UniProtKB/TrEMBL annotation:
<dbReference type="InterPro" id="IPR050425">
    <property type="entry name" value="NAD(P)_dehydrat-like"/>
</dbReference>
<keyword id="KW-0560">Oxidoreductase</keyword>
<protein>
    <recommendedName>
        <fullName>NAD-dependent epimerase/dehydratase domain-containing protein</fullName>
    </recommendedName>
</protein>
<dbReference type="InterPro" id="IPR036291">
    <property type="entry name" value="NAD(P)-bd_dom_sf"/>
</dbReference>
<dbReference type="GO" id="GO:0016616">
    <property type="term" value="F:oxidoreductase activity, acting on the CH-OH group of donors, NAD or NADP as acceptor"/>
</dbReference>
<dbReference type="InterPro" id="IPR001509">
    <property type="entry name" value="Epimerase_deHydtase"/>
</dbReference>
<comment type="similarity">
    <text>Belongs to the NAD(P)-dependent epimerase/dehydratase family. Dihydroflavonol-4-reductase subfamily.</text>
</comment>
<feature type="domain" description="NAD-dependent epimerase/dehydratase">
    <location>
        <begin position="8"/>
        <end position="255"/>
    </location>
</feature>
<dbReference type="Pfam" id="PF01370">
    <property type="entry name" value="Epimerase"/>
</dbReference>
């Protein structure tokens, strides 16, 4: 990526996008960044701080995923678009999957790519997707080749009523590939998707509402002191996810989809043990709750029996080689991610 190029980052106040903006500025790039409202000072304070730190390099624009045409002004003159904005609510709090997550994710992708079609300067779109665009429940991975998560699959098991967030990610990513492939030859803009696992690590914004952060929030608040369920997650540090976005733009050979995660899943109990040793808090458990007990208390946690059957106690392996080979990502140890996650969480608690 040449130094004088302008990059657009959508949803710039979010957990991942804030890191992308910061890394672009650190590299000397000019950045256009969209936020829902420039009046919400609390939510964008960290971006205003970046404007002071890098004078003249970061311009903020208002845009709304649901409003057609709202990304056109911010995209003027940009050569790379990082489309990161997408709602990530806590699954058990979703009341209307279609309205709360599927529509914003799908319409947002359509509106951003519609602006890309009209903006002659754009050569590359890097879309933030997710591993859940590849699988819906952990059990799905057991059906894949070598029982290993890889980018040759798309999630076929999620729906508006079962894993609505996962469904929103697969619908949005498939739409992006459809719009990319519909370009006349030779294609003017290239599409790369970044598909991270559960994203943890330090937040640059105290008001980040990412669903991935709520899980650890419960653990750190001591709400799970009786023990944690036998759940397994693909994990990645937010800083590696941001770096992957930039590397996808820098490497002319990068193409397709990239899973960003450690090469195997980590158990919830492992998080708990690491965090207990970091925080020295006796309210963070060291033990797992037996699956039978979790199944009985599922309704209280807002988890269906179907979900528990397809996810409880199912670890799997992950093919993350493209991220190593093409993007030269070096994954930091989970201990470091959790330590940095904890200190930024503590700071946000004030």
């Amino acid at each position: 990526m040449a130094d004088n190029e302008i990059s657009l980052v959508t949803g710039a106040s979010g957990f991942i996008a804030s890191h992308v903006v910061q890394q672009l500025l650190e590299k000397g790039n000019d950045v256009h960044a969209t936020v829902r409202s420039t009046k919400n000072q609390k939510k964008i304070k960290h971006l205003l701080d970046m404007q002071n730190r890098w004078p003249g390099k970061l311009t903020l624009f208002e845009a709304d995923l649901l409003v057609a045409g709202s990304f056109e002004a911010s995209m003027k003159g940009c050569s790379v678009v990082y489309h990161i904005a997408s709602p990530f609510p806590i699954e058990t709090r979703i009341r209307d999957g279609q309205k709360e997550v599927v529509e914003p994710a799908l319409k947002g992708t359509q509106h951003v790519l519609d602006a890309v079609q009209k903006c002659e300067t754009v050569k590359l779109v890097v879309l933030t997707s997710s591993v859940v665009a590849i699988f819906g429940d952990n059990a799905d991975v057991l059906e894949m080749k070598n029982k290993t998560l890889s980018t040759e699959y798309f999630n076929t098991t999620s729906s508006v009523t079962h894993n609505a967030y996962s469904y929103s990610k697969v619908v949005a990513e498939k739409e992006a590939w459809k719009l990319h492939d519909a370009q006349p030859s030779p294609k003017r803009w290239k599409l790369v998707t970044i598909n991270p696992g559960l994203v943890l690590g330090p937040s640059l914004s105290p008001t980040s509402e990412s669903g991935s952060l709520s899980l650890l929030d419960q653990l750190l608040r001591g709400q799970l002191f009786l023990g944690v369920p036998d759940m397994w997650f693909s994990i990645v540090d937010v800083r590696e996810v941001a770096t992957a976005h930039l590397r996808a733009a820098e490497n002319p050979d990068s193409h397709g989809r990239f899973i960003l995660a450690d090469n195997t899943t980590h158990g919830f109990v492992e998080f708990a043990r690491i965090l207990r040793s970091i925080t020295q808090s006796s309210r963070i458990p060291r033990n797992k709750i037996p699956n039978s007990v979790v199944r009985m208390s599922g309704p209280l946690l807002g988890l269906s029996q179907k979900w528990l059957k397809l996810n409880l106690g199912i670890p799997f392996d992950i093919d993350n080689r493209p991220s190593l080979d093409q993007l030269s990502i070096v994954y930091r140890p989970l201990e470091e991610t959790l330590a940095d996650h904890y200190s930024s969480w503590k700071k946000a608690q004030g």
